[in-house]
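Ex. 9. Protein: META domain-containing protein.
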Amino acid sequence: MRSKILILVGLFMIISSCKNDDDSFHSEINGDYIGIFERNENTSKVELRFNNGSFNGQSEIEKFPAICNGTYSISGNTISFVNECPWTAEFDWSLILSDEWTFRVGENSLTMTNPIGDKYTLTKQ
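Predicted structure tokens for META domain-containing protein:
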């Protein structure tokens, strides 16, 4: 019986620590960033702001990429965006900041890449 309790306590601690890791990434990436978006050797200057699960931003070139505002969640090294803005149909919707991106946080940097090879290289302000 005692070993079962120890196992349950151990599992609870592991699950709790996973949640805390995600929370620490939220606070770790909170802030204002400027940088570059890249797709197929084309680039655009971008600005992004992260604030405890919410994001907003803009791009130097209209809809390249398409950044507006929404929410994000973090799991491990994946950040998932939910765009909350309406968009018109005349452009490539894969340019909208949404869905899952792999990310890496440095001392003053944030790099995000998606499965099709798009990349944000950002510097924290």
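Check your answer against this statement. Residues 2-124 form a domain with the Lipocalin fold (CATH 2.40.128.280).
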